[in-house]
Amino acid sequence: MKQKLDHYFVRPITKFVQVESFGGILLFSAAVIALLWANSPFSDSYVNLWNYELGFEIGNFHISKNLLHWINDGLMVIFFFLIGLEIKREILIGELNSLKKASLPIFAALGGVFIPIGIYLALNTNPETHAGWGIPMATDIAFSLAIIQLLGKRVPLALKIFLTAFAIVDDLVAVLAIAIFYSNNIDWALILYSFIPLGILFFLGWKGFYHKIIYFTLAVVIWFLFLKSGIHPTIAGILIALTIPIQRKTELSIDMNQLESITTRLLKKRTSDSPILTHTQINLIDDLQAWTSRVQSPLQHLEHIFHGWVAYFIMPIFALSNAGIVFGASDHLDFDLASHIAIALIIGKCIGVVGFSYLAVKLGIAAFPDKVKFKHILGTGFLAGVGFTMSIFVSNLAFHGSLLYQDSAKVGILIGSSIAGLIGYFVLKSVKPASGEILLSDEEEEEEE
């Protein structure tokens, strides 16, 4: 039973954490490189690179944007698509699929959203920067899990699952805020047109039908309509993800029998260690791949494919292109705005996550996960203040057209995220394991199993 639990639940979560953790390291490295590059003698090359115009023209159709916009409006759609897949999975089969399991992450996430917003608005007295209230909302799961991973077995797996679950709820609220409050000059006709291909995808998903070419073609159409409509195109990524079926409507037992039959026949055809396969073996391998695709969950398959691309390429590229702030002139920054964002991330996130979690437990609505102590929740509350990726993304939308406020917001995000991450790390490091609890290395744990 324990081996089945490890195979279907513990190991996928562990792999997810490892990918996100290394992605967080790359994200941090890209941010540091961007800051050094933007403040070096080669700063002009940094600015010119991201302002380089790219586009294409087909007949009367023409689209052209600078490289920074292609990253923020194009590549980041894949990031939001992955978030959408994670949200759907968690709601259907994960930590948010029942009220009992979801109550603590949901309460923690809501506290981590509304308290930072309240603190930001209470501190801010400049009407021009009121729009920045959404910046301290979301938690950067890659950065926070990278920090937790540094603590090794000192942090229980249940805490990593809790952090992942409430960060996903955070992201969902942030996406709704972007769609409702950070979109303007909306062309509702184009939105209505986008509902046609979107409706087709929802119908296909409901029927359990999935075909890569059909989904990709309609997804590009939906993205383009959102891009031209005034609603940020990353919202299209979320909506498209929700149409992906979590399973195909096929008889699983029949598919599994076919896979077993093909595998048995393939093993019988094994003749030698020669790298050259016979025609029969090649045909059997093709059949195996075809039937494997029938069994696979389209949602989990896509999540597996895009997870590495997002963590190892898209997010670092986003950080490299957006984190390059020039510190040369003090009059180029609004330090009040930066400090308000930093305080909201450090203090607001912690008070919100810890306070709402404690309230949920005291009211009997939720309970702390196994082996998780109050001090663990406190450390995680500070880690929730690491809001790098989504915070920078929202700051670009909130202060669109004002480089002064954009850069000031990014300074506040960098400072707030760094301090919150350090405090969270040391708080979690100070938690001693329970009496008799032995912390094993990965190798020792595998040997024990």
From TrEMBL:
Transmembrane regions: 21-38, 106-123, 135-152, 161-182, 188-206, 213-246, 309-329, 341-361, 381-399, 411-428
Recorded catalytic activity of this chain's protein: Na(+)(in) + 2 H(+)(out) = Na(+)(out) + 2 H(+)(in)
Main localisation: membrane
InterPro entries given in the database record: Na/H_antiporter_dom_sf, NhaA
Alphabetical keyword list: Antiport, Cell membrane, Ion transport, Membrane, Sodium, Sodium transport, Transmembrane, Transmembrane helix, Transport
Subcellular location: Cell inner membrane; Cell membrane
Pfam families: Na_H_antiport_1
Protein origin, superkingdom: Bacteria
Residues making up the signal peptide according to the UniProt record: none
Topology with respect to the bilayer: Multi-pass membrane protein
Keyword Cell membrane: yes
Annotated HAMAP family: NhaA
Summary of the function given for this chain in its UniProt record: Na(+)/H(+) antiporter that extrudes sodium in exchange for external protons.
PANTHER family, A to Z: NA(+)_H(+) ANTIPORTER NHAA, SODIUM ION/PROTON ANTIPORTER NHAA-RELATED
NCBIfam families: NhaA (TIGR00773)
Homology family: Belongs to the NhaA Na(+)/H(+) (TC 2.A.33) antiporter family.
The protein, known as: Na(+)/H(+) antiporter NhaA
Organism from which the protein derives: Formosa undariae
Gene: nhaA
